[in-house]
Structures are given as C-alpha cells and as structure tokens.
Amino acid sequence: MLSFHLITLFPEACEAYLSASILGRARKNKKIAVAYQSPRDFVDNKWGKVDERPYGGGPGMVMTALPVVRAVKKSLGRKKGKTAIIWFSPSGKAFDNKEADVLTKFNNVVLVCGRYEGIDERAKKIIKTTGTLKTYSVGNAVLTGGEVPALAIVDAVTRRIPGVLGRDESVEERRIASKEVYTRPETIVWEKKSYKVPSVLKTGHHAKIDGWRGKKR
After folding, report:
1. 72 and 44 within one domain
2. Residue numbers of the domain that contains 69
3. For 92-118, how does the pLDDT look when each residue is reduced to its tens digit (9 = 90+)?
4. CA angle at 89 for the pair 88 and 90, rounded to the nearest 5°
5. What CATH number is attached to the domain comprising 152?
6. Which of 18, 62, 122, 124 gives the lowest tally of CB atoms within 10 Å of its CB?
7. Are 216 and 179 in contact (CB under 8 A)?
8. Cβ–Cβ under 8 Å, residues 84 and 109
9. How many distinct structural domains can be found in the chain?
10. Domain end (from 130, 151, 168)
11. In 66-207, at which residue ranges do the beta strands (DSSP E only) sit?
C-alpha cells in the first residue's frame, strides 16, 4: 500500500477532496493511505507561530525550518520502504504522467506544503537525508500554498495504482483518448439549434474511431 503524508497547516483543506470519489474508495479499499502532520504542532513557542520575517528584508513571512523538519520526521516514524519527499517550487521539474508513474514505485510519499513566502531553505537541506528528495512544479501560476499541488500529485499517482480504476485501460494516457468526449442523447437541441454526436463515434468501427480520437488528441 502506498502511503501519502501531507505536511500542511491546513489538513481540512485537503481531507474533503481526498475522501471523495475514486480517492475515497482507494483509501477505503486500502490501495492508499493518507496522513497529515501540521508544522504548528512542532513549534517551540506557546503561540503556535510557524513563520518569521525573511532575512535580507522583503514582504511577507517565511515558514521556519525546524517545525517542518520535525513534522516530516514524525510522519515517517518507523515506516519502512522507499520514501520520496516532495518539495514544491516554480523552478522545479515539471510534474507529469511520467513522474506520476515513478512515484508509484515508492512506499511513502511525503508532500511538503509551503505557505506564505515559502519555507526556510535549510529545511530542504535537512530532510533530503531522510529519503529521495524531488522538487516539482505543477504549473507556472503562483498559488497560495502547496496544498493544491499536493492534491494534484496524490490524484495523478493514485489512479495509476493497479485496481484503483478497475481496468488499466481506464488510465487515459494508456489508451487512445480524445480531448472531446460525448454521451447520450445523440442530439441536443438548444435554442432551436441542434448539436449532434460526431457520426464516426456511432459506427462501431474501432479503427476509425481510434483514428478520429488520435486526430483530436
């Protein structure tokens, strides 16, 4: 079973998504496990403060290193097997289907979700000693935190685990899929105009259908 460990200040922002639909069933069927650790639980102050002003000046606040390191250490505990630690950065390697396949080979995947202006870089240097460190970017847009990228990775990796989708062909990248999909009814009428399903999809001729889908990819 592949275990995902999310290091996040906002587990409630992740749990609803990770409990629904395919991911929820994967957890129930013990294809994956999901656990959370909050850096706020590992601070040295009574206020639960996890951020400080950046050295060198500049706007915003930076997450301190040690609470993040302690949360990662706690999440792994005595767990055995291969561990991947995921760090998010706009300059990191683009996360894609190939990388998702790579992560299915690990036993533990730790996703470090930063906030504010980021995490003290020393945390990255320390935690890379506990597993294989991978720095990913999930897009060029700037987001509020690392939770959305983490959810994207859990989703992409989970659907590749045998048995999660029922049949291996359900993984779109392993079959000829089109960006255009259609279902019933055959004709939709909207404001006196008809919208029909492409005729090739109704032929039952699989070679022609695959050819059409290939052109639409």
Report:
1. yes
2. 2-168
3. 999 999 999 999 999 999 999 999 889
4. 135
5. 3.40.1280.10
6. 122
7. yes
8. yes
9. 2
10. 168
11. 83-94, 108-112, 132-137, 187-190, 193-196
